[in-house]
Amino acid sequence: AAEMVGKIIEEAWPEFNINNLRIRSEAERVLATGEPAHYTAHFEPFDAWFEVSIYKNPGGGLSLFSRDITARRQGERALEEARASLQGVLDAMDDAFISTDGALVIT
User: Fold this and answer.
1) Side-chain-side CA neighbours of residue 28 (13 Å)
2) Which of 17, 20, 31, 89 is 20 to 30 A (C-alpha) from 45?
3) Would you say 64 and 53 are in contact if contact means Cβ atoms under 8 Å apart?
């Protein structure tokens, strides 16, 4: 980490081409308005998903925080596919099907 101090992002991480990412426009907006940015983005060089937050520092510059949410996104996608598959089975059924919760409320 100490070897990165004083470098621009592209020098520290060549695969992080900031000009092609949403981060450039978000960073410029945060610098101009002072309002923080929060968003989710796919980072192709690593084929990973991140939650990103950008804040303006009181003395100038920015602080950027990111969280890798790739596993969560993969889980959400698998769940969506399973639901779509189940919905296809239910739509194709000629029989009645009712699902309830523990209090016997139809769900």
Assistant:
1) 6
2) 31
3) yes
